[in-house]
Amino acid sequence: MKKRGQLVFITIIVLVVALLVGLLYPKIAKTLATGDMALKIAATRDMALIIDAIYSSPYDIEIDYDYDLSKLIVDISQSSVKIYDASLVSVDNGIIQGSDPNFAKYSFVPVDDNPNIILDRPKRILFSKTDDGLNIIGIR
Amino acid sequence: MKIFNFKKAQGVISNWPFWIMFGIAVAVVALILVNIANVNIADVSTVPEGLEDEIVLISRFYNSEDCFAYEDEMERVHMGVIDSSKFEENNMEKCFPRSSVNYAFSLSLEITQPHTFNKGPIKTFNWEKGFAEKEIIEDVFVLHDDTKYQGELIIKIKNVQ
Fold it and tell me: In terms of DSSP bridges, do strands A133-139 and B69-71 run parallel, antiparallel, or are they unpaired?
């Protein structure tokens, strides 16, 4: 049997932990639902569909994707768009260093092409297609 | 501190079953919240039904010169006109190369007038045997033996996610 002082101490700790947990959960849920995670997933899908649409067009085409992705790193390679959190990975000599366990990925299907492009924290992305093929530029 | 002076309550929190139940309750609430958050993420980022397969991906088959669209001597591409000589399985590798895409396609070309002409089906790399989930018929022109005919491109779609 524990002494009353110990039990009071445990009770206070339990209450503090419960309060912290209670305050933290909505914040975690909000971060997951509306923050960078949602942006990462939505942006990968946007870009993969834009690339698919560009490949389907026989004409020259230019699309300005002016969604601020300055907290993210975009990797377009191996027929997929991958987006990483720039606070967890960096770009060094065109190679992504570090790892983001929650990176987002979505596939596209190129037409007679194999794009390999890394965009470091772009504020806008310009997609264009000419006779020379697909060109993607990130503007910081 | 009278509030903590309940012997029964003191007894409860000093027992292991209390802590086990407390842990389970915390885990359940965490799971519920993470699931709600995941549902919200899915809502935000869901690609509308039919957009990717029926609109974005299939248009390459009849619009892109690297697929089956007719390209004349002046290098003009005729959208919606399929060159029957290009409508071959080996062109599909260039038109729809290997990737982790969620959809598979099977294409057949048909001319009904003035005579019956069928070609295909030709399939994408990820097409597996079995029934298609959707079938879309696109009205196209078919260039066959230097003559343009009205025809149909029958596209079967499977979700291979």
Answer: unpaired
**Which of B105, B127, B111, B108 is CA-nearest to residue B119?**
B108
Instruction: Scan residues 55-84 of A and list those with Cβ closer than 8 Å to B.
Output: 55-59, 79-80
Q: Is B33 on the interface with A (CB under 8 A)?
A: yes
According to DSSP, the β-strands at A72-77 and A89-92 are unpaired
Pairwise CB contact (< 8 Å): B57 & A7? no
- With left for phi above 0 and alpha for psi between -120 and 50, is residue B144 left, alpha or beta? beta
DSSP A57: -
Convert the pLDDT of each residue in B99-138 to its tens digit.
Answer: 888 899 999 999 877 777 888 799 999 998 888 889 999 9
ipTM: 0.73
Nearest residue, CB atoms, B99 vs list A7, A59, A109: A109
Joined together, the tokens standing for residue A101 give 């366990």
Res B136: pLDDT: 92
- Alpha carbon of residue A93 to chain centroid: 21
Provide the chain B residues 108-147 that lie in CB contact (below 8 A) with chain A. Answer: none
Listing DSSP states for A92-137 in one string gives: ETTEEEE--TT-EEEE---SS----EEEES-SEEEEEEETTEEEEE
Pairing of strands B77-83, B134-144: parallel
Over residues A55-103, the pLDDT tens digits come to 998 889 999 999 899 999 999 999 999 999 998 999 988 888 988 888 9
Which residues neighbour A131 within 8 Å (Cβ) at sequence distance 6 or greater? A60
Say whether B4 and A7 touch across the interface (CB within 8 A).
yes
pTM: 0.76
Which chain B residue has the Cα nearest residue A17? B26
